[in-house]
Amino acid sequence: MTIIGNSRRTSAVVVKLLLVAAIFGINFPASKYAISYLGVWDFRLVSALAATLTLVFFFRRELGLLFGRKKDDLLKVSLLAVPNVFLVPTLNNYSLKFTSSSNSLILIYSMPIMVSVLTMIRERKFNRDSALAACIALAAIAWLLGFQGMGKGEVIIISSACVWAVGTFLTGFIKHDIPAVESTMLQFLVSLVLVLLFYFFFGRLSFADYKVQWLPLLVSIFVGVVGGAYVFILWFSLIALKGAEYVSYSSLLSLIFGVVFSSLVLNERLGWAVVTPLMLMAVSVWIVTTKKRSSP
C-alpha cells in the first residue's frame, strides 16, 4: 500500500509539473491572440484584474495579514512589484504585438542566464557552468536573430528579459520578513494599481467593441485566472512538495509547450531557425537550474 501511495503521489506531482509547464507555455501564444484583437492595454487590464481578484478570493487570510507587517518590508516588496509583476508582463505584451510568440518565448528565457552572470559579478567568483550557459544562450540569440532579424519586438523582449533578471536578482538581494504568498499578493495588487494608472493614458476599453470579440476577452480572462493566479497556486504547492530546483524544470518544458502550441494554433512556422535556438536555450536553462556551482 505504501508503494502504491508513493507512486500515486509521484504521479500527481508529475501531472502538476506538466500542468504548470503547459500553462506557462500557452500563456504567450494565448496572449498574442488576445492582444491582436484587444490591444496591449485592454488585454493587460482584463488579465491583471482577473488574476488579482482570483488571488484575493483564494488568499483572503493572507491579504489581511499584510496589514500587520512592517512598513519598511511593505515598501520593499511594493518596489519589487514594479519590475517583476508590472514592467515584465507589460513589455512581454508589447513584444507580442511586433514579433512571433515563439521568438518572444525563446528570448525571454535568456533571463536565468542573465541572473547567473549578475550573481557571478556580485560574488566576484567565476563559475564555469554559468559561463557555459551564458555562451550557449548567446549562441541561441545570435542564431535566432541571424535568421529572422532584430525587429522592434525582439528589442522589447530582450529588454524585458533584462528587467526580469534585475528584478529576480533584487528579489534575492533585498531582504524582508513577508512570506512568499503574502509578498506575491502585494506585488499583484501594486501591479494592478499601476496598470489602472497607465490605462487612463494608453487604454481604449470599449464594451461595444467586445460584442463581436468575446473570445479574445475570454482568452484574456483565462490568461489572468489560469495563467496568472492558478499557476501561482500550483507553483507554490509544487515547491512545498519537491523544492524549487525540481519546479525549475517547468521552465524547460514550457519553452517546448509554448513553441509547439504557437505553431499549432497561431500557424507560426516551426523550422530550424526556431527549433535550433529553442534547443540551445533549453540546454542553457538546464545547465543553470540543475548543475551545482563549482569553480575551477
Helix-strand blueprint:
Elements: H1 2-38, H2 40-58, H3 60-65, H4 71-98, H5 101-108, H6 111-123, H7 128-148, H8 152-173, H9 180-202, H10 214-242, H11 244-247, H12 249-265, H13 272-290
Helix pairs in contact: 1-2, 1-4, 1-5, 1-10, 1-12, 2-9, 2-10, 4-8, 4-9, 5-8, 5-12, 5-13, 6-7, 6-8, 7-13, 12-13
What labels describe this entry?
disordered C terminus, 83% helix, globular, 296 residues, mainly alpha, single chain
Report on the architecture of this protein:
There is one protein chain. With 296 residues, the protein is mainly alpha-helical. It has one domain (2-290). Helix content is 83%, strand content 0%. The chain has helices at residues 2-38, 40-58, 60-65, 71-98, 101-108, 111-123, 128-148, 152-173, 180-202, 214-242, 244-247, 249-265, 272-290. α1 packs across α5 and α6 runs antiparallel to α7 (128-148). The protein is globular, with a radius of gyration of 19 Å. Residues 292-296 have low confidence and may be disordered.
Describe what is shown at a glance.
With 296 residues, the chain is mainly α. It is built from 13 helices and no strands.
Number of spatially distinct domains = 1
The main pleated sheet reads as: none
Shape: globular
Structural class label: mainly alpha
Distance between the termini: 47 Å
- Multimerization status: single chain
Order of helices and strands: HHHHHHHHHHHHH
Count the E strands.
0
